[in-house]
């Protein structure tokens, strides 16, 4: 009897030890056991999450780029997380803010513009990139046409580049007997072209209601379109009076632009009147190029030809333009910042092969890129003038700086210009109002 009890006890002890050994074997890799959430190891790779407003579909170019990155190396695995299905960056940022405030960690996220990124940077949500570049002994401003900075800290890189240029309707240009302008042409020249291009059935050009169109010079030739380095309003800058008066003269005297009141009432898309043939030329960011291939939204049969954006009359520099775009940022609380930076860097240098967007990375062959993108669309896009415009070595971008409340300042200028045009006020009157309003916003954000 004692022998049977001893044998039974031995068998039970053996089974307990066997089960414990199996459990220990299944958890002998702590990193695998914790591979969940925004970090950990997945199949030997460090796992990070990328939050975007682009849809999670196989035909989405950003999705394709992320999958290509995952296949390009064996160190990092990126999980693609789309928070919205309408591709609306504003809705996306609201959801991302809620997610982060609830304690979720974002390794990498995309923004629709610089202001959205910098507003989060000012709240400590974004990790500065300076140390990563210093570690690699790389000067980012030599590698990229533009980086996203706040107080000398680089907080993001542009996922693609939109550059201000001038697009023409080739048919209207040739009918008016005009040559395509060269780099260095001025806004006075632009006014002259608009007068000569105006004919029965269409205006010479079109100006939209956005704040950029109140003074394009401020966006292409100044470090900040509303502020100086000390955060004082710059409405005493001669370009503001010049451009406000240029707009009024082109409408009232030359009749070469659609009246501002009509534009305001019609709620046009910024590209609508150009592609409808109602305006012969348009100063606009380069997203016009790809939009011109969307025949369902903008049906037209003319070829677009391109020239640089004009310079201010008193400027001695040529080639000045403005470059913007969506941002890529690393979350300040990410535990995988090195992996996140590797992904961000790759996206800025390689994703254009999938998105067919112009990169800000300088190490690309512009002519080959444009030919590859648009070789099947030369009936709509003159690739020679586009290449010359976008990749001219004389192109310069001012040493720009942004502020998180830039959208508020832009609205102030939009309202000031609207009062100037609709209420026939003098520039000095609206300048005083804009100056006071901008000072209030700056003071409130100190």
Query: In which range does the helix fraction lie?
Result: 40-55%
Kindly report the average pLDDT value: 90
Please tally the β strands and state the result.
14
Overall morphology: globular
Structural class: alpha/beta
Uncertain segments are 1-38
Strand content: 5-15%
- Sheet with most strands: 7 strands, mixed
Radius of gyration: 27 Å
Number of helices: 20
Termini separation (Å)?
87 Å
Describe this structure in words.
This protein has 446 residues and is α/β, with parallel strands linked by helices. It has helices at residues 2-26, 30-33, 61-72, 89-101, 114-121, 130-136, 140-143, 170-175, 187-197, 216-221, 238-252, 260-266, 272-275, 287-291, 337-350, 352-355, 366-374, 383-390, 406-422, 427-444; strands at 41-42, 45-52, 76-82, 108-111, 147-150, 153-158, 162-169, 203-205, 279-285, 304-308, 320-321, 323-324, 327-330, 396-397. The strands form 3 sheets. Strands 1, 2, 3, 4, 5, 6 and 13 form a 7-stranded mixed beta sheet that branches. β1 (41-42) and β2 form a beta hairpin.
